Amino acid sequence: MPVLRSKCYGPAILSVPLFDDEVVHFAKPPFTYWVIAGGITLFGHNEWGVRLENVLAFLATVVGVYWMGRTFTPSRPWLPALIYATFPVPFGAANIMTTDTLLTLWEGIAVLGFVRWWESEDRSYKQVFLMWGGFGMAFLTKGPPGLLPLVSILVFVLLADGWRSASRLVFLKGPVLIGLLAITMLLLSGSLVCAGWVALSPPNVSSDWSLYGVHFTSADEGWAVGSDIYNGKGVILHFVDESWTSIAPALVSLEDLELFSVHFTSATEGWTAGRDNWNGRGVLLRYSIFPEIKVTASTIDFGNVLAGKTSEKKITIQNMGGVNLTIDTIGSVAAPFGRSGGPCTDGQILIPNAACTLLIQFAPLNQSGFFLLFL
Fold first, then answer.
1. Rounded percentage of the chain residues whose pLDDT exceeds 70
2. Structural domain tally of the chain?
3. Measured between alpha carbons, how far is 28 from 97 in angstroms, rounded to an integer?
């Protein structure tokens, strides 16, 4: 079972968008992810950091509509901007996670560039670069749908002014600008951040085994879980000091144990979930670098016991931590209570998930109420 590692040198893999650093998501071009990451870098993991890019894009679009208004309604250029700013749908979209607000900004810039070119006297190539730059950014934001307004623009120019004007609009430098813009940004993000995948050699668990989940607590330490299909056991691998080692999971099934996912809440505590196929039930294992004692039951009620009779109850001591637990000294009990048995002893060592029991006896010689604090 090979393990692949991505050698990355930046805070995020900008050329490969991910959900929760695990799930690859190529449904949209990467530009929206980049600006969201920039907002999070500036303001942290909060609402402002995530929504900032759409708010700024909406405000910039309002400004762009105002500049178009200077051409279409020169006496009241503020009116188109006011109308757009008060539309509920664009305003609402600026407050949610969507690519459409950024797309509207770039397409608005592209249309503004076309309007400036159309209304100019000489219709030079320099004036139309704004249009092609806007469509280039729209393509990086939404992909081919970002170029749909270009179709309407071409149809309008053909019907209004013929092929000659259309050919001046669609000159070679425009599409080349889009291509160079997209390729440069993608190459820049990829070359600065990620150098690719390399194969690592994990321990040879058996002749037939698989890995299903991985989680890293830092760049230098991580965990992977899976199933040893050949031996019917769960697999836990620990990565530290640039190498993997195999760790035996807790014994929860005679055979056919699978572990599917692993997650750490800190460098000292983690969880893995799976299935005990032998017993047909789910499995949840906890990792901790500290011993943790669990005593059940913490309170014992013997009820009503007749004088001269005996009642016996059991106390279970279990190690819920991730390392061995040493039982120091078990407290003594006074009559009419007494320790009547059980394998727990002073100095006993309990491995993780192991348990031992104490038997406590209650033998009253007369009728009365009895209470004992046992430590």
1. 78
2. 3
3. 13
Where are the strands (E) in the chain, listed by range? 3-8, 18-19, 23-24, 194-200, 209-216, 221-228, 233-240, 243-247, 257-266, 269-276, 281-288, 293-296, 311-319, 325-326, 337-341, 349-350, 355-362
Of 147, 152, 263, 143, give the one whose Cα is nearest residue 212. Answer: 263
Provide φ and ψ at 70, rounded to 5°: -65, -20
Phi, psi of 90 (to 5 degrees): -60, -40
Same domain, 99 and 166: yes
What's CA 83's distance to the chain center, in Å? 39
Q: Indicate if 282 and 179 belong to the same structural domain.
A: no
Q: Say how far apart CA 21 and CA 173 lie, in whole Å.
A: 38
Between CA 331 and CA 309 the distance in angstroms is: 24
pLDDT (0 to 100) of residue 59: 92
Q: Which amino acid is at 17?
A: P
DSSP annotation of 74 reads T
In this predicted model, what pLDDT tens digit does every residue of 137-150 receive, in sequence order?
888 888 888 888 88
Distant-in-sequence, close-in-space partners of 73: CB < 8 Å, separation ≥ 6: 79, 80
Q: How far apart are CA 72 and CA 115, in angstroms?
A: 9
What pTM, to 2 d.p., does this model score? Answer: 0.47
DSSP codes of every residue in 343-357: S--TT-EE-TT-EEE
Which CA distances in Å does 361 have to 99, 120, 156, 298? 71, 102, 97, 15
**Domain edge (last residue) among 265, 288, 311:** 288
Range of 307's domain?
293-362
